[in-house]
Structures are given as C-alpha cells and as structure tokens.
C-alpha cells in the first residue's frame, strides 16, 4: 500500500493515450443525449456499457471504440472530453500528457477537422493554466483507411500545424504494414512533425522494423512483439528507441499468451527504454497504472 501511495504521489508523464479512449460511459451518454444520438448507442446506461467492454481482440475493441466516437460532434464535445481526462489525470499526478487523437474517425462522419483539434487543444491550454498539467497533441492516421486518406488528412491538418506536435499510426494492424505510409510520413517529417507509430501490438516484429526503417519514427507505440525477434531487440536497445508499452490494454485485448509481468520483466532485462501508459483507460481501466516515469524520456 505504501508503494502504491508513493507511486501515486510521484509526478508522471503519459505518452500513449487516445483521447477518444478516455470517453467514460457517463459522459458518452450525456453527450449522446445532447446531440440527439442516444438511439445510435447499443447500450443506454453506463453499467450496460461497461458490461459490453469485454474484448476478444483489437478489432473487437475498435468496433466499440468507434461507436463511442460517433457521439462526438461539436468542438464543445471534444473540449468536454479532454477536460474530463485532464482533470482526472492531474489528480493522479500526471503533469505531462501527450494526447493522441484520430481525426479521421470524426471527419469521415462530417465533423470539421477544426472542431476536433480546437476543442482538444483549447482544453489542454485551459488545464495548463488551471491544473498545472501540460502536454501536446499527436495526430494519428488510421491504418485501415489507407495511405491516400492519410495524405488527405495531412493536408487538412496543415493549417493547424502549430497545435499538433507529432503524427502517429493506429487502428487495425494486421494486414496494414507501415511501409504503405512511407510517403505520408516523409511529408509529415518535412512539415516539421515528430513521428511515432503503433507497431508490434497485434502485428509481427516486421512491422516494428518497418516503422523504424521506412517511417523513421523516433518512438514505437506498444512494440511488445519485439520480444520475438532477437536482432530487433538489439537494434532497439542500441538505438534506445523507446517503446510506449500499455500492459493493461495488451491484457484486455489478449494480444499475447502468457504472463504480463513476465513480458515486462523481459523488456527490462533486455535494457530497452520502455514507458508504461494507459492507451484507452475508459475501456480498459487503469488510469492509476500510469506509473512513475522520468520526464527526460518525454517526447515533445
Ligand atoms: N486506437 C485506440 N486504441 C488503439 C490500440 N490499442 N491499437 C490501435 N489503435 C487504437
Ligand atoms: Zn494506442
């Protein structure tokens, strides 16, 4: 208990968090009601929602996650979502949060890119002033929408470049190798964005190689499956490319067999740079498991 209290009291950095994955059922229902969308949800109260949060794999989770995203329509919705997360994170000692968002999950429903990015970044500015929690934004390309759609989203993002620090890659992994996104990553780098990508979550170690070699990322999100490739482990150790590991997410999405603690120990004994993160805490639990983490490993 005293160790838990100590960890709680330490300042922490959150480096892998999808803001849409912090949408708690209570807020989802409140926003759905005010947008007249309650009937679009497959559950009508928070308890029923939580009971539906049992996942077989990444895709099973994504289906529910994108359904939740659908209630978000206006800048105020993104502001409220982000403010609720930051308040909660500040209480838990997070002082730096790198917030990922999935613009395409919203723009493909007709929501303006501007409403999404302004709502999130306005909440971050407000929290910096009132709560002392600071951070930056990472805009993710959705892999399963393909490279052309990613290029289009990058075009849409350019007028808001000053609000966005990095680009990332997320959504379904199997069948969507990172190499397809080489050109859009090169352009994002040229525009001054930092580069990260989800890789080696459900997909094979080759995806981590491709993220490093083809996309030239400076950080891998998840990356847990590097443990299957000894050469890759050596490369990640030698280059000290960090992995933002999300153990509770991995467990809930059943991305590997065997024991979680054993995987973490393996990563540490290989001398890899790893950080512990929440991913989608409204769906997986685990806000409080964002562990202490030295700030110099922070990204922005
Ligand atoms: N989007 C939100 N959470 C994700 C995850 N764990 N993997 C890939 N895409 C995601
Ligand atoms: Zn993630």
UniProtKB/TrEMBL annotation:
Q: Adenosine deaminase domain spans which residues?
A: 11-287
Keyword tags: Hydrolase, Metal-binding, Nucleotide metabolism, Zinc
Domain of life where this protein originates: Eukaryota
Cofactor(s), by name:
Zn(2+)
Show the GO MF annotations.
adenine deaminase activity; metal ion binding
Alphabetically, which GO biological process terms does the record hold?
Answer: adenine catabolic process; hypoxanthine salvage; nucleotide metabolic process
Q: Does the keyword Plastid apply?
A: no
Per the record, its GO cellular-component terms are: cytosol
The record's listing under PANTHER family reads:
ADENINE DEAMINASE
Q: HAMAP family, alphabetically?
A: Adenine_deaminase (MF_01962)
Protein name according to UniProt: Adenosine deaminase domain-containing protein
Q: Organism, per UniProt?
A: Apatococcus lobatus
